[in-house]
Design a protein that fits this description.
mainly alpha, two-stranded antiparallel ribbon, 2 strands, 3% strand
Amino acid sequence: MSESVVAKTGVAVRLKVLRRGAQVLGAAVLGQWSLYGVLRCPFVVPYVSCQNCPVITCHGRVLPMYWGFWLALPASVILFGRAFCGWACPGGLAVALLGKVAPLGRTYGSKFARLAGGGKYLALAGCLYVFYAMGQPRADVPIRVGAFFQAAALTFEHAGLLWIVRSAIVLGFLALGLVLAGAWCRFACPTGGALELVKGASLFKVFKTSACNGCGKCTKVCEMATRPEEANCTNCGDCLDSCPVEAIGFGRKPKEGPGKTA
C-alpha cells in the first residue's frame, strides 16, 4: 500500500470520527426542533415561522439562536456545499441509522435513483408554493398536554388535511428508509433539494479528478450511494480512501488540462 493511500486512509478515518461527533452535536442542538417541526409545528412548512408559533415549548420558539441557523446554513453552503446534510442535520443522522438495517441497501437501480431524485425538488417547490402563494397557513391547533407524544397525537387529531398530508409524506419516507436506505434525504427532503441546487458554488468539496474510471467503489461506502460532486454528494468524506486509482480528493479542486473530465 502506497504512502499516499495510507495517508488518505488515516484522513478518512479521522473525518468519519469527526463527522459522527458533529452529527451527534447537531442532534443535541437541533434534535428537539426537528421533532417539533414534524410532529407539533402548527404550520404546513415547519421551521420558518417560529416567531409566530404558539408552541412555546419548542426550541425554535423560545431560543432566538435558530434565527442564526438560517444565517449559518447559507454560509456553510458557500464553504462546503451540501455538507449540512451529512455533518449536522439530525434527520440525516436518523436516516443514516435507519439505513443500516435496510434490506435493499443504498443501490437499487441508477435509473430509479435518478428519477426519484427529482422528488426533493418537487418537495421544495411545494414548500415555496405553500409559503408564498398560500401565505403559510396554520393548519392545526397544537393542544398542549404533559407528555410530548400525547401532545403530538392530539396535534394529528385536530390538524387540517394539508398538514396531515405533509406529515404523512415525511413520516412515510422516513419509514421507507427502513427498506430503501436514505430515501428521505435522497428523494424527498426540500432542504436537501435547495442545497443541491446551489452546492456547485462551494469553495471546498470532496472531488473526483479525471483519473476516475467509474468503477463505483466510492458509491458502495457512501451513505447517499453517489460519487463525489454528483447528485446527493454531501461532502461526507467517507469515500476518500475507497478509490483504487486515487482519483478522490478534498479541498479546492485543482484545475485540470483541457479535455480532461472526471
